[in-house]
Structure formats: structure tokens, C-alpha cells
Amino acid sequence: MRLFVIPLACLLIATGLHTSAQTADSAKIKEVEKGLVSMIQVEGEGPWTVKEHMEHFKVKALSIAVVQNYKIAWAKAYGWADDSLKTPATTQTLFQAASISKSLNGVGVMKLVQDKKIDLYADINNYLASWKFPYDSLSKGKKISTANLLSHTAGLTVHGFEGYTPGKPVPTVVQVLDGKKARQLRSDTLDVCAGPQIGILRRRHHHFAVDRNGRDTSAL
Fold first, then answer.
1. pLDDT for 22-59, tens place per residue?
2. For residue 5, which of 45, 62, 43 has the smallest C-alpha distance?
3. 3-state DSSP: the chain helix, strand, coil percent, rounded to 5?
4. Containing domain of residue 200, as a range?
5. Same-domain check for residues 204 and 106
6. What is the pLDDT of residues 90-133, one digit of tens each?
7. For residues 78 and 59, what is the distance between their CA atoms, to the nearest angstrom?
8. Residues 6 or more apart from 178 whose CB is under 8 A from it?
9. Is the pTM of this model over 0.70?
10. What CA–CA distance (Å, rounded) separates 110 from 203?
11. How many CB atoms sit inside 10 A of residue 128's CB?
12. Domain shared by 104 and 84, yes or no
């Protein structure tokens, strides 16, 4: 089995390789560890190992979890959680969820659709309570739907942003949406009219689910 790895997903390399793994078939783990291939494959280039990939992209730590039949088959961490203190990464080390959160939140939103609590193609402002999307002339009268958000076709600004350093104040979701109290952010506005354009909408997914579901989903 070959595992496709997107280099940008490796957020945080180790001069030494330290691991912590759950009990699993070691042969299956080795198959993954030695079978990494690039998104673009060059003729004659063989698969990489996890260690080689980390060294090449200067990734200090990463964690892998393999899910089979809706259960974690095995999980293993590599590298240093704290390079200066030489603290090894483990399967309990916290990493930024980043774009993984979009898939999880998308499932939650589709559960609301399945339960007929929302219309997938209705204006999102019908369901937003603590924040409303500020439509302007660029929208040309078209409304943004949940389907637009989930398919990245809402034409919104801000494709993504950095996380927050431990110990630093974290803005509320509404402040993030308004572009306040976060120097690297600007407010959510339209770049283009909703339609076949692409935009990344992690924070809108989450806020939409919270407002419609009545409870915070960030702990999932």
C-alpha cells in the first residue's frame, strides 16, 4: 500500500527519530513508513520513508493514525514535540487540526441536513444567529448556501491563516469572522459572486454548525 502525503500537511524534523505507537501489526506499520510517494511522481524515483520525508521537508514532528472499519488500527508519532528540550512526540502530542477540521465539521453539517434541520441550498443567513454574512453589491443578489460553503464555491475571501501561539489570547469565532483582534486576519467578504469559484471556508463551517446546532463542536 502506498500512502500519498501532501508536504504542507507536515506542519511541525528531527535529527533523531523518536516514536510512540499503539499495538499493531508491525509489518503494516512498516509498509506505511517505507511507502511514501510524492503527489507528482518522477520516473525512477522510489518511495520515501517517513524519516526521509521529515528530513527533506524539515518537519520537526508528525503523527500518523490509520483508521480501518471506523476504528483506529494504529497510531504512531515521530520526531520531537519540543526540539530544544528533546521531548519526543507521542500519540498524545497536540497538533493543529488545520484543514482536517473541515471534513469533520462537514459530516456534522450534513447530519443537520439529514435530520431536516437545514436546507442545503437556502441562504446561510436563515440559520446564522450570532453573526450574519454582510452581503454587498458584489454578491449581485445571489445568496450563499450551505452547499456553497461545503464545496468551496461561495467566493469568499481569506483562504486560510496561521494558528495561535500557546499562551497568546485567542479571539472568539465572531471576532475572527469580523477580522478583529488578529493581525493576520481580515473580515469575511466576497471576492467574487457565489458560484463555481474556489475558496477555503473552515471557520465559516464551524460557526454555521454552532449557530444552527446550538452547541460548540470544536471539542470533537
1. 455 788 899 999 998 888 878 888 899 999 999 999 99
2. 62
3. 30, 15, 55
4. 100-213
5. yes
6. 999 988 877 888 888 899 999 999 999 999 999 999 988 888 88
7. 10
8. 131, 187, 188
9. no
10. 16
11. 17
12. no
For residues 181, 186, 187, 192, the Cα torsion angle rounded to the nearest 10 degrees is -170
Question: In the Cβ-directed half-sphere of 81, how many Cα atoms lie within 13 Å?
Answer: 14
> Is the CA virtual torsion 10, 12, 15, 16 positive or negative?
negative
DSSP state of 191: S
Element of type H or E holding 112: helix 100-114
Q: How far apart are CA 128 and CA 106, in angstroms?
A: 16
Cell digits for 52? 526521509
Q: Are 113 and 83 members of one domain?
A: no
Q: Could you give the number of structural domains in the chain?
A: 2
**191 and 106: one domain?**
yes
Together in a domain, 62 and 148: no
Q: Does residue 48 sit in helix, strand or coil?
A: strand
Q: What angle do CA 103, 165, 132 make, to 5 degrees?
A: 50
Give the closest residue to 41 by CA, choosing from 84, 72, 5, 89: 5
User: Cα dihedral angle (171, 177, 182, 187), rounded to 10 degrees?
Assistant: -160
